[in-house]
Please model this.
Amino acid sequence: MNITSLRRLWFSISATLLLASLVIVGVFSLNLGLDFTGGARWDVQFEEPTTVAELNTFFANRSELSQEVEIQASTDNTYLITIEDLPDADIQTISASLTSEIGKYEQTSYRKVDATIGQSFKQKTLYAIATALIGIIFFVAFAFRKIPAAINPWRFGGVAILALLHDIIIVLGVFVLLGALYDVELDLSFITALLATLGFSVNDTIVILDRVRENIRLQKASETFEDTVEKSVKQTLLRSLNTSVSTLLPLVALFIFGAESIALFVLALIIGIVVGTYSSIFLAAPMLVEWKNWADKK
Model:
């Protein structure tokens, strides 16, 4: 199979996935977790049988609250309760009233994030992703600065960034859909997985682009730029697949057998690595060919 000559097929697949992801994000919006919204969350286990309806009624009558409380039932009469950011005194009042009106409970965990800290996390997340993308494009352009001017080293950085944006949007779309269907939240662990995905994906992409650079030096007079790119993709294909599979195997094992607390983090990594491997092989290098062909026609 000639991967580069089938680039319109890969572009169509990516465009479909990107469009679907953007529609999902637009329709369902981001289900941000406590790290970004602020608030308090605690796990409580009641001594007497309790229902979600009873808890909803209790919180609906609390004057301290201005936003809806999120309650998730678990096993053994245990509930995960998430409320808005409140002063500690109000939370203590609610806690005491919960005991007197609903029943005694044991608090197994408690976490509170100030709303201003949550807003700060949002800004720093955007800065982190933007800084990573800008740094990558300049690094790639510098590393490939000796590429012939007719090909332009900035194109190498450009296709690497486009491939990364492709990965980010698709992973985000999957998790927004999971948020709509299963109430999965986007938190700092998701951002960590996203940044790890960027690192993995750009490493794979640069390996392929570096082979393109080497083959340009050895390019025969009878070979076109597309021939050179195709040769480079074929030469690095097995390495890319081996790296991805060897990384995915322990991640899948962690997802199946690991702790529930890291399951979503591992799932984000799995999806990111699959999408990143696809974009490195079937998107980045073919885009380089398409970009050069378009520039040559101008």
Summary: The mean pLDDT is 87. The first strand starts at residue 39 and ends at 46.
